[in-house]
Write a structure and sequence with these properties.
UDP-3-O-acyl-N-acetylglucosamine deacetylase activity, 21% helix, 18 strands, 5-stranded mixed sheet, lpxc deacetylase, domain 1, alpha+beta, 6 helices, UDP-3-O-acyl-N-acetylglucosamine deacetylase
């Protein structure tokens, strides 16, 4: 595991549209000094700046995406970017965006992983601090649950079950490392059902969803995309990607196991908040095994 804090070696820019609002945006990621943390800043049309650290204190409602903000000023769909940030062990970044939603790009974390690799990662002269899970904590919603458990590394164990022949029951478990995430998790794209499109668009969602940035399951229960899935279990891999991004709202990397069954953004967020509300269930440490 990583001993020192890190940032990028150079600035990166991304241009695209949001999957829900379809508004074109520019996202710029700047290197940042030691102990700066990951801070998002939304710049509105008048040039006013609104900054939000990536933590649960600044998180908004989390149903179809993960959000930071306050009141009407929000930055939505941060999870794919935050998953790549977490997987690459980046601690200090200043992220600026000129709209309300992070660009969806190809619907995965792969573009961010590739860009981070090209920019290079710089080790900084300060120890990295971890949240080490020392006692289990669990949240439930019907048959679904999410929990943090003690472990010696950062691990994820994700199970899903959908009443769809294209998905069914899927499971994946892994230790979070940069190489594994880049190869096995990052390319898994977001997914949805054609039967839900009309309902979502009627309330202003999924306006920017296309077959180029989303895996779509048709009314016949089959994947509509000509290029198919990155793997047969690509659906659970994307849910794992979301979990990596959502748990980054702990505000620090964690040492432990995050496990969920039939979960999603809302349950992931609830688990993060439940853990932080119980300080005796974790410790802040610079030491790792």
């Amino acid at each position: 595991m990583q001993r020192f804090q890190s940032t990028l070696k150079k600035e990166l820019s991304f241009h695209g549209a949001g999957v829900h609002g379809a508004r074109p945006v520019t996202l710029v990621i700047h290197p940042a000094p030691v102990d700066h943390g990951i801070v998002f800043t939304r710049i509105d049309t008048a040039g006013e700046r609104h900054s939000f650290p990536r933590d649960t204190a600044h998180a908004g409602p989390a149903e179809l995406c993960t959000t930071l903000g306050a009141g009407d000023v929000r930055i939505e769909t941060i999870e794919h970017l935050m998953a790549a940030v977490a997987a690459c062990g980046l601690d200090n970044l200043a992220i600026e965006i000129d709209g309300p939603e992070v660009p969806i790009l190809d619907g995965s974390s792969a573009p961010y992983m590739q860009a981070f690799a090209t920019a290079g990662i710089e080790e900084q002269d300060a120890p990295r601090r971890y949240i080490r899970i020392v006692k289990p904590i669990r949240v439930e919603a019907g048959a679904a649950y999410a929990e943090f458990l003690p472990a010696d590394t950062t691990r994820f164990d994700i199970s899903i079950a959908f009443d769809s022949p294209a998905i069914g029951e899927q499971h994946i478990a892994f230790e979070l490392t940069r190489d594994y995430f880049a190869r096995e998790i990052a390319p898994a794209r977001t997914f949805g059902f054609m039967k839900d499109v009309e309902r979502l668009r009627a309330v202003g969602l999924a306006q920017g969803a296309t077959l180029e940035n989303s895996v779509v399951i048709g009314l016949d229960g089959k994947v509509m995309n000509e290029d198919g899935l990155m793997a047969a279990d690509g659906f659970v891999r994307h849910k794992a990607l979301d979990a990596v991004g959502d748990t980054a709202l702990l505000g620090r990397p964690f040492i432990g196991l995050f496990r969920s069954c039939r979960g999603g953004h809302a349950l992931n967020a609830a688990a993060v908040k439940a853990l932080l509300a119980q300080p005796d269930h974790y410790e802040i440490t610079e030491k790792f095994i």
